[in-house]
Amino acid sequence: TMKKCNIDGYEIPDKTLVFVNAWAIHRDPETWKNPEEFYPERFLDSHIDFKGQDFELIPFGSGRRICPGLNMAVATVELVLANLLYLFDWEMPEGVKSEDIDIDGLPGLIKHKKHPLYLVAKKRIACV
User: Which residues participate in heme binding (predicted)?
Assistant: First the structure.
């Protein structure tokens, strides 16, 4: 902080480093219905901006410390994902059902999968 302030009833002295817990913000049940469930469709018709303007979702940070690679990251992920979906059909390994997949993660600064996810990619279109 640059000067002494009060946040939600807590006195914060000047020159205090304040850590924003993005993990907790992204899993707030007051903002997200069933926040622990993997449900990407929740973002299809969402008004929430992931580029740091809405504090319900701040995967790249916000303000002066926003990730400088945000635009490149978004474009790269979109391009790679579009190509993977276009070129391959995806299925689970023989004998594995979708309900068998464990989506638990490990705690940390970023969330890593506790158990790896295995998928089988079958070439659908001849690569150019």
Answer: 67
For residue 66 the two structure tokens come to 């926003």
**Alpha-carbon span 16 to 9, nearest angstrom:** 16
In the chain, the DSSP E strands lie at: 5-7, 10-12, 88-91, 105-106, 112-113, 120-123
The sign of the dihedral angle between the CA atoms of 20, 76, 53, 44 is negative
Query: pTM score, two decimals?
Result: 0.58
Summarize pLDDT for 30-89 with one digit per residue, the tens.
Answer: 988 898 888 888 888 888 888 877 778 888 888 888 889 999 999 999 999 999 999 999
To the question of whether residue 127 is assigned a binding role by annotation, the answer is no
Torsion of CA 103, 105, 111, 115, to 10 degrees: -80
Look at residues 33, 67, 38, 34 and name the one whose alpha carbon lies nearest to residue 50: 67
- Write b or e for each residue in 88-108: b if 16 or more Cβ atoms lie within 10 A of its Cβ, otherwise e: beeeeeeeeeeeeeeeeeeee
Separation of alpha carbons 88 and 70, rounded Å? 27
